[in-house]
Amino acid sequence: MSSLPAFPSSSLLPPARAPWSMRRLLAAFLLLLLFVASVIWLNLSASRAVATQSAALAERRIPELRAISDLRAQLAARGNQLYLYYATTEGETWQAADRQIEQQMERCLSALISLGLPDDEQQRYRRHAGDWQQHTQAFTREMQSPARRSWDALREHLAAAQRSLDAQAMMFAAWDEAIRLTTAEASQSALDEVGRLTRLQIAFSLGVLLVAGVTLLVLRARQKDQARLHQQAYFDQLTGLPNRRSLEYALQHRPTDSDGCLLLLSLPAYQRLAGAYGQASADALLQTATLWLRGELGWLGQRQLLFRIEGERLAVLAPGLGTTAEAAALAARLRQIADYPLQLEGRRVNVELRIGITLYPGDGLDPTCLIRNADAALQHTVNGDHCHFFSPALATANDRRLALEAALRQALQQHELSLHYQPKVTPAGALRGAEALARWQRDGQWVSPGEFIPVAEESGLIIPLGNWVVEEACRQWQEWQSSGLPALPLAVNISAQQFQAPDFPDWLAGTLADHRVPPAMLELEITEAVAANDPDKVIATMHKLKKLGVSLAIDDFGTGYSSLTYLQRFPIDTLKIDQSFIRDHHSQPAIVRLILALAAELRLQVVAEGVETSEQQTMLAALGCDLLQGYHFSRPLPPVAYAAWLASEPLSKGSGASTNVLQ
Ligand code: C2E
Ligand code: MG
Ligand code: MG
Q: Is the pTM of this model over 0.90?
């Protein structure tokens, strides 16, 4: 597998979309920006607070402390000067020095006042200064009268002056202490602010990291989701190939002036295998065929693209190969895979490949038209002609089919369909029941079921059509019953889609009850293809139906691909030999005999279809066939004609079939 060339990643394939739209990315970015801006703002305001506190310290507290310190120094000097005066008695020198000190102290005080010294503290200072004046004046007076000088009085004045100085010194110390205290508090709060700032920075960094991490994770998850959705929308899960949507995209986005071809490939073996061996085998076939085709296209070049459209259908888009000869050569090359049988789960499988081809721009331009053209061409491939080119005549056929589908839909809505009843008789000619067959008269012309049943199957109309047939057959049976006609069973054909509908057994039980039809009076004819598709599920449904009381027949037996093993497990009552074996009995005499032997072994009733001659009747009677059906006895009859036959049937004849089961 690894030796295969890589499948081209073409510009024609839809690109995976950006995981997030620009608008969302912008919104996420704006959110992040908002977060960053708010953290920066918080940071700024915290820094501003720290700066303000530091500035206050520098601009106010330090000059205040300096002024107080000066004041204290002057105070000490003032005391010393007074003592010096006392010792030397030089009054003039002292007065000059004291005046100078006082001026000095006044300057310091003005500085403190300008820095915000409270009024009551100023008053206190003035009071102490007044005391000092008072005591030093008394001291001076005493000093200046040597005749009456009293040393005791002098010492007393000196002590009073000293006390005033001490009081001032204490006041300055208190100021100093108060300033130091508020400074310490401011420093502490600045420190706290710095701590908060640091924590904010750490939180911010972690926040940014977290947001970035979460954004990354979300983006990754979204990217994965987007990639998965893109994969599901544009690629087939089984084969990994681009799907129908991708093909439409590629056709839409091809260069307008380009030419090329579109090949629609069908593998009929896929349905056969699904029917006979189950879906897994069919899928394995498709996967292997896909690998081969990819390999083949890879060797041809990198420009062709392979798609899986649906089911067993693939498509090859080949830009540049726009002529019939080029497209035919490509188809021939691809068809080579049909030359080699595949080994699948121990079985040899012949891979048949049918190809419908359309060229562009000649056959059409828009994707829907091109795919429809290729499909129309594919539907015209037949055995021996496995490739077919589209032509306008084919388009007409396709349009006819679409018109037929629309008309059938309308006919169903307007109840324009009817049922005819084809009798089933014993080899001796006694009536034993009938098969209800759908009839459609369109614009006065009968449309063959061979034409409208396949259209109904393809369009899904088969479910309402088939349900109507069952209801109408039940209603008719009850009407005949009510008018006293013998109760003979009716058979209805059940399509695969109808049979596989999950509620079919319940729906059928309800319908039988609504029309008061005993289940034994209804026989369901299903084809081998239905029976062989997902056999386990089919067997389960069959058992449900059997439990209900209806009988089951395999229609057109011998033409399908059901395995004998499963046949043995099916709880069926009847095998209907396909009319082709009756017709060709002379050339293949063994087949009817074989089917009869098989039925005898499995204890099944056998009905021969398509009996057209008395010779066939005699032969089938001799072989022991239970019931016969065919033009030799009667064509399918409108209800009135069949009722007439029912009425003419001698009630005594037949093994109890003519008794009214409701009585
Ligand atoms: P079938 O179920 O095998 O029905 C038997 C077909 O063989 C009928 O064709 C019948 O008219 C035809 N036939 C009977 N005796 C002879 C004979 O002696 N010679 C020849 N040449 N043909 C004979 P008809 O009515 O055209 O139906 C064809 C098929 O369409 C049916 O084959 C059945 O598969 C399908 N069909 C008809 N009605 C319904 C229906 O209501 N539901 C479904 N799902 N399929 C239906
Ligand atoms: Mg039938
Ligand atoms: Mg049949």
A: no
